Amino acid sequence: MQMSMLELIKTNFDLKGQDIRTFSPLTLAYIGDGVYELVVRTMVTEWGNRPVNELNKLSTTYVKAETQAEMIIALKEELTEEEAEVFKRGRNAKPYTKAKNATRADYHKATGFEALMGYLYLTEQTERMLYLIKRGMELTGKDMKAHE
Prior knowledge:
148 residues
């Protein structure tokens, strides 16, 4: 059986693992932001070799708070009770930074989205995480295939 990326990271760096139930929603959002961006960057680079500024511009469409807020709103009916709870905890968290190019409401929803992504990643529910990302893009008309 092939190890997940998370398992490989833990093994290679001799990490013991933490009880993620003790993580704050902002800690979940922190890792979720990175994981979601990695998914988007992977998809964008699969379109072919391009100048980095062009790759950044393409990625920005998907990683900005407004898009993440739209996606989580569209996905609400598809979330399990547990997923909805993680999202709500993230949305209601008091971030230490202010939204740069988003409304406060979108920023809070995006934080909830990122917390959910972090939770799914850390609980090794990668297939579910990827399903929700893809489905969110489809439901909001931000399907990446349209940009290939």
